[in-house]
Structures
1.
Amino acid sequence: MQLIDGKAIADQVKQEIAAEVAEIVAKGGKQPHLAVIIVGHDGGSETYVASKVKSCQQVGFKSTHLAFEDTITEVELLAEVEKLNNNPDVDGFIVQLPLPKHINEEKVIEAIDYRKDVDGFHPINVGRTSIGLPSFVSATPAGIMELIKRYKIETSGKHCVVIGRSNIVGKPISGLMIQKGYPGDATVTVCHSRTKNLQEICLQADIIIAAIGVPNFVKGSMVKDGAVVIDVGTTRVPSTETKSGFRLCGDVDFKEVSPKCSYITPVPGGVGPMTIVSLLKNTLLAGKKEIFK
Ligand code: GUN
């Protein structure tokens, strides 16, 4: 069993991005600039956004952190989005989700200029990704593809079972895994909460991508010997062993499953660290105007 070290790969990719930014700036080019909007005080979101801003600094990006109270109206938030759309210094920006209930997330996402949508959530980017056109691919699926590539994991003709059908992971990763080329060319089955013979399907998988959001959902009895297991789960569960009082728990029962795997991602330290790196990569592409002129 080989552990897929997402932290190490993320550090490596960050160094590559930093080197590229240094080169751009040395040649008199523009420092890539990411803006992040956060609304309210959700603990998870605040931690995540702080980490995104810190990562920008590490690779030499400019970053802008815009924090609003959850009393902001939808109209006011849409006006903030429009300001960023029209700010030529901002190459890309994201609106951290979830948003308070009185704000329609779809409306906000659709208001983002797709050429600055480094989260890859805008329907134009989602659609372009699904038909294989250049696009901003959302962070988690892009991070998974990068891990598969860097570990040279074979995907052609492999049976990839995706557990979960969310818009931000399950749907895009299944679309990417069936695409022509590498990583891709897989036979993909997407399972979800209504799937009947889940264990039987999982037992046929060469690659399992678990993104269902249920801690320890994938058991040893669901995994065949030699499978590759990618765990996207990051549920916060109470813990007496950490300062924060919680720890992250994956969708895979690591103790049971890991001895059977050829490769497996741990939680934390697997897919998680790659998501911010994907956002940085998209911001670099946005800065270089590489996807949309
Ligand atoms: N909330 C959880 N993950 C994400 C993400 O990747 N982007 C945004 N905008 N919000 C999130």
2.
Amino acid sequence: MALVNSKKMFEQAYKNGYAIGAFNVNNMEIVQGITEACKEENAPVILQVSKGARAYANHTYLVKLVEAAVKECPEIPIVLHLDHGPDFETCKSCIDGGFTSVMIDGSHLPFEENIALTKKVVEYAHERGVTVEGELGTLAGIEDDVKVAHGAESYTKPEEVIEFVTRTGVDSLAIAIGTSHGAYKFKPEQCTRNEEGILVPPALRFDILEAVSKKLPGFPIVLHGSSSVPQEYVKMVNENGGKMPDAIGVPESQLRKAAALSVCKINIDSDLRLAMTGTIRKFFNEKPDKFDPREYLKPARANIKEIVRHKLRDVLGCAGKADECK
Ligand code: G3H
Ligand code: 13P
Ligand code: ZN
């Protein structure tokens, strides 16, 4: 089947208490690892491309890689989504260039400006069958050029969501409830430590999620910054020449809980980066004589596939749901 927008996926995900995985793609091995996992698990999927990914790999290459995945996996629905669209022009260029969904991220703007920008993108997108994600509230962390320091983030205000959704016409809304981008989601001071000395992060603000859902019944909510930063990969990085002290993510149990509520899209990038980097570091450490990129990219791709399979089955709950999302 051809690329689809996110409408049907979100309807099914909301109704049946699961979330669609939105995984960031930057090169062929990442596209292959994700889509091979989704094909084997018969899961719908969102492949998302950031401004940085477009600058790195080039729009045309990324679209063609995703089209190749669509051809190789005809039995699963795939959305090609712009992640954190920074302005109207970038959204327009992606819509004109084959994307089926875009995010316009006006979360750093004053409320009225966020509404005006988001509405403009929605009007352009909807005329072309493309779905749009907006955002209210800001996450800490780094995404492309925007860096938000811990402490400077702001939770979504539930009292703003009805007006934002009604006036913009967005199809889904990203909210800030305590997740953040990258591999260092919580400062050690915010956490407690368990018996093994592992950091235990504070809980997400489910009270805000519930208040938002009450205001917008049936409306799909999106969670960014939802990597769990698997400690086995942090260890693999650190034991093989890397330095990622106190890297910590969102516990998977909290994401499962969110997926069963109104959260229909869960964004995961850092976990795939960690799986890839940990695997390659270990390979180089153990086999310093090797220099054929295929030899280290192959296990890296295999581990991306494994981590995605785990997310689909055990976290998002969307394994086996491809058919109902078509
Ligand atoms: O939210 C950010 C995503 O992880 C994409 O990261 O902007 O470095 O491509 P990037
Ligand atoms: P992570 O950094 O937690 O993987 O978040 C990715 C994301 O939100 C992409 O938009
Ligand atoms: Zn994000």
